Amino acid sequence: MQKKFTLAETDIPEQWYNIVADMPNKPLPPLHPGTHQPIGPEMLMPLFPMELIKQEVTTDRWVGIPEEVREIYKVWRPTPLFRATGLEKALDTPAKIYYKYEGVSPAGSHKPNTAVPQAFYNKQEGVKRITTETGAGQWGSALSFACSLFGMECDVYMVRASYDGKPYRKMMMHTWGANVYPSPSDRTNAGKQILAQDPHSPGSLGIAISEAVEMAVQDEHTKYALGSVLNHVLMHQTVIGLEAIKQLEQAGDFPDIVVAPFGGGSNFAGISFPFLRYNLAEGKQIRCIAAEPASCPKLTRGVFRYDLGDTIGMTPLIPMYTLGHNFIPAPIHAGGLRYHGAGAIVSQLLHDGLIEAQSHNQLSCFEAGILFAKTEGIIPAPEANHAIATVIREAQQAKEEGVPKTILFNLCGHGHFDMAAYEQYLSGKLVDHEVTQEEIMASLAELDTPLINV
Amino acid sequence: MQKKFTLAETDIPEQWYNIVADMPNKPLPPLHPGTHQPIGPEMLMPLFPMELIKQEVTTDRWVGIPEEVREIYKVWRPTPLFRATGLEKALDTPAKIYYKYEGVSPAGSHKPNTAVPQAFYNKQEGVKRITTETGAGQWGSALSFACSLFGMECDVYMVRASYDGKPYRKMMMHTWGANVYPSPSDRTNAGKQILAQDPHSPGSLGIAISEAVEMAVQDEHTKYALGSVLNHVLMHQTVIGLEAIKQLEQAGDFPDIVVAPFGGGSNFAGISFPFLRYNLAEGKQIRCIAAEPASCPKLTRGVFRYDLGDTIGMTPLIPMYTLGHNFIPAPIHAGGLRYHGAGAIVSQLLHDGLIEAQSHNQLSCFEAGILFAKTEGIIPAPEANHAIATVIREAQQAKEEGVPKTILFNLCGHGHFDMAAYEQYLSGKLVDHEVTQEEIMASLAELDTPLINV
């Protein structure tokens, strides 16, 4: 039985797919946090190069991928598509399971798919330095890699707790030549303000965003980059699904279900949007399922309203499924999924019933990941384990129903930098983090951001 | 310009190449450490399954790869061949540089190429458990991965200093279900003997081999596996070079120089033997260069004589280039290259002038690795950096001579578990380890093993 479906580098997509063109209800506009009025592209100019701002607002169905970007994509793209023969056998399921493996990129996840074009457009418009924030380091390392290839400086504000406790991705960023600062730092007013209140602050993603944005706006040669949530970031990731379509054609197959982990939405968008197009344009009924942590359940238990992208109000208001921008997710190991909100496009799709969401607790995700490692060989990132947990649930359902469904999921990265989390799980030291309805209600009650009338 | 040359899974070789068939002088036989008489295959039966013993002594040119092994190879094979366009540009060299990337395997190196068939043949002959030793953990994790797929137990004796100081590969082995014991342990007589002398012994590869071998010989359902040096191990790795030949055909190219890091020989054999065949059988003159650490220079400064494979005499005597089995290499980060001797086949080839060797000190290897990471994106394992250092040297030579040479090397693994070493280098904390001629002479003077009359 064929296990691996590969493509030639000439099969790397020449265009990204922009789902906005096919959405029955377009995403609502971002609003100014002060005036609550829709913001124009010009407000984003201090932060992003013009080409990315254009991509953020375009309604074109297809956006060309620059040849220079495709040239770098060749280092890891096309990524392989695998039939999960070992997992299928272990589950004794009639379901056919396929996975797209994005862990073959130099940074080890899908994040370089957008880091490289973001660095490219910045370089093209004369930017010398890009700032960004990172939690555990997946996004920061992807952007460091991309900046290294274009000869640009990269300043990464890394949440202090991760900077101290998870040093290996910091070292990876150093190897690619990036500057990594623990956040809060004394390099910014935002950081100084926090440190004045608490000299031992462990930091947060919200603080790190503030620092990175502050450094970008005060220097004309410096801009800022974000690794998920925004429309153009989601669009860049669609190379994943576009390749998967060709590979499943090779396999003579087509999915009934498409699954991906969900943090801000780019992972999920990357694999599912090209398949959702078959639903939106051709009336197919592929189920696209976002898998989120039970400890950060914005899609399954949050509300759809305007909210801030960061915790202290430096970003526009985005129409999102949110738990409230003050919600602090429990310290699960899937750091990439610890975000209070979802991007505008994905939120609109969920609201319109065009996609589904499931949540999983931490222990069942590691159990799923270890079964995967033992049957397929690859040790997944903790984020990817959420997708695997959903896949197992659906494959067991298919067995109960006796239906040979075809399931595709995004194995978005490897777990090489997460071995301590696996060890904790195996030694019984990991716990689940329950979120009470009271906690969610309390976080949402603090919001004074505009409601969405729907 | 084409960057990546991929093959379909149907291109995975159907046979391993056994260079013994084409060697003008066959490798000398292993000797019994007590009698100094050639040992027969039956002496290896407590340690290895019969099929591997047959492979160890066969002179057949081609040995079939079992379909079950090819099925698992599909998880990462064929591995990609890349044109190092970024590195070429940085070096401003007329040389064309290609690399075969073995880091895409689940364990992150070329080691699973032999771990999987070794586990397979053991499983086929009813073995329940495989024991092995590991230093930093590359080989132990590869065997853990392979045993996991075949549902076999795997007991890894890991050098205590690495067990304590480099825990991440240990955790990886745990994730695949292996038992990992710090060596010396109190599970074996060998271990107890060492611990009685020194309860805080940091261990060594030699002690760990003794423990793994002792556990294998005393239980009929348990056997032992080695990750390099032996003939069958080298042969299993030839899938690397056999694939590279097809990929360079795609590129319309053929190498003038083939380079690989050198520890026990399997890495080097894997990529170079299928090309050496063109020299041996067709009179071509491809230069095959083994790159070893200056701190463990067995090929460039050792002697060709019989020596033990381990430090305390439980293995047969092997005809090898050696620094003496009591030679303790300095604690460089390229743990996979810290071995006192070279396998019999590679030693004979070097003695006969059919291959070359170069050595590099640690700092220049990390410098080469960082240039590679910044220009090609992939962060190499410290072992692989030795090959890159040789490639850079040869590419600069080509530039001086104005000759457009074609260079191929084996990028045998990624450096995800070696980030602390990169960080040490970048912060100026790494040093070179000089080996004096006196140290080498002193180590060799201790040998009472048979000389080779040549």
Automatic annotation (TrEMBL), chains A, B:
| GO CC field | cytoplasm
What chemistry does it catalyse, as a reaction equation? (1S,2R)-1-C-(indol-3-yl)glycerol 3-phosphate + L-serine = D-glyceraldehyde 3-phosphate + L-tryptophan + H2O
Q: Which is one Pfam family of this protein?
A: PALP
Q: Does the keyword Amino-acid biosynthesis apply?
A: yes
Record InterPro entries: Trp_synth_b-like, Trp_synth_b_CS, Trp_synth_beta, Trp_synth_beta/beta-like, TrpB-like_PALP, TrpB-like_PALP_sf
Q: Which residues form the signal peptide?
A: none
Which key words are in the record?
Amino-acid biosynthesis, Aromatic amino acid biosynthesis, Lyase, Pyridoxal phosphate, Tryptophan biosynthesis
Q: Where is the Tryptophan synthase beta chain-like PALP domain?
A: 76-413
According to its UniProt record, the EC number is 4.2.1.20
Identify a single GO molecular function assigned to this protein: pyridoxal phosphate binding
Required cofactor names: pyridoxal 5'-phosphate
Q: What is the role of this chain?
A: The beta subunit is responsible for the synthesis of L-tryptophan from indole and L-serine.
Q: Of which family is this protein a member?
A: Belongs to the TrpB family.
The entry describes its oligomerization and partners as:
Tetramer of two alpha and two beta chains.
- What protein am I looking at? Tryptophan synthase beta chain
Question: Which organism does this sequence originate in?
Answer: Fibrella aquatilis
